[in-house]
User: Fold this.
Amino acid sequence: MALVFVYGTLKRGQPNNFYMTDKRNGHAWLLASAVTTQTFPLVIAGQNNIPFLLNIPGQGHRVHGELYKVDEALLRFLDDFEDIPDMYQRSPVTLTVEEWLGPAHEEELAPGSVTQAFVYSTTTYQPDWPSLTHYANYDSRGDHGLIYGGRDTTQHN
Ligand code: PCA
Assistant:
């Protein structure tokens, strides 16, 4: 089992959330909403308007997302889907828990408590990406109008 923080298209209500619920790829359990303890630039980049958390702590905003527990099968699936290590890398991140959303039988993480998880962030970004608009909370259908164009690993830049 591993803890994974998702901030982009894998969140509930976003276009790739079905990968978290489709049990053919492995299993995920939603635990809590959370926010990165440090700030990072979260940008929407490339032809397909893909969200990227740039691994540049100290810039941007504290980024909101969801904390999941995932099994080994889903972790391997997500590593492949996120095209690590080329497109994203899976890196440890420190989170502050916002609201417990997990099952009652789990040991609850209290709001305000700090925990570690993996996040799919990137250091392999184009030079102009840090100067794109920084978001605190990704929504594929947000006011930015940058509709997510799907994942095509041949043209992610
Ligand atoms: N999927 C991962 C990284 C960015 C994306 O769209 C996520 O939701 O956290």
Notes: The chain is about 10% helix and 30% strand.
